[in-house]
Structure formats: C-alpha cells, structure tokens
Amino acid sequence: MSRLQVLSLSGLLLAAAGLGLVLGLGAVPPGETEIIEAAAGRYVAETGGAPTDCAARPAAIDGVRLIVTCGTGGADVWVEALDGWGTPVVVALDAEGPET
User: CA–CA separation, 87 vs 42, rounded Å?
Assistant: First the structure.
C-alpha cells in the first residue's frame, strides 16, 4: 500500500468514527437534571416564576419518567408530566388515578 492510500484510508476511518460518535451521543436520552431544568425554564417563561420553585419526582405511570411541579402552592401550581426524552406527555386522570 502506498503512503497516499494509507493516509486516505486513515482519514476515512477517522471521519466514520467521528460521525458514529456524534450520532451515538444524539441517541442518548437526557439526564433527569437536564429534563428538570428544561421544564423549569418553560415554567419561568410561561409564569415569570423562579426555577427554584420547581421540584420533580419519578412517575408510576407508563410512558412518564418524571412529574415536575412548580409554584409556591395554592391554586397556582404548574405541573408537567415528561417522558424519557423530556417531552411533555398528556395524562388523563380520573378519580381513581391514571387512565391505562
């Protein structure tokens, strides 16, 4: 193999490895901290409240990873159910609990 072929092959392998790394990292879901911070950001944008008004807990509902609750209490509570990627999920609730 000539030097030019070795360099060309090395360049292609490096580019393929870089592309694989970028695509692989894009397939990793965000961590809980990132999900909570994004939800708190939406809360601040919608209500003008503080991000420190927010707390989260794991959800026992299929398809829901976290439930983020923000607010100072009373009737002005902001709640959002989020899936594993941090996308808001609509959950139908009745008097007996989540609809399955």
Answer: 12
Give the whole-angstrom CA distance, residue 48 versus residue 50: 7
What is the residue whose two structure tokens read 């439930």?
A: 67
Q: Full-prediction pTM beyond 0.70?
A: no
Angle, CA 60 vertex, CA 52 and CA 72 arms, to 5°: 25
How many other C-beta atoms can be found within 10 angstroms of the C-beta atom of residue 47? 13
**Helix (H/G/I), strand (E/B), else coil: 80:** strand
Rounded to the nearest integer, the mean pLDDT of the chain is: 87
Q: Chain-centre distance of CA 52, in angstroms?
A: 19
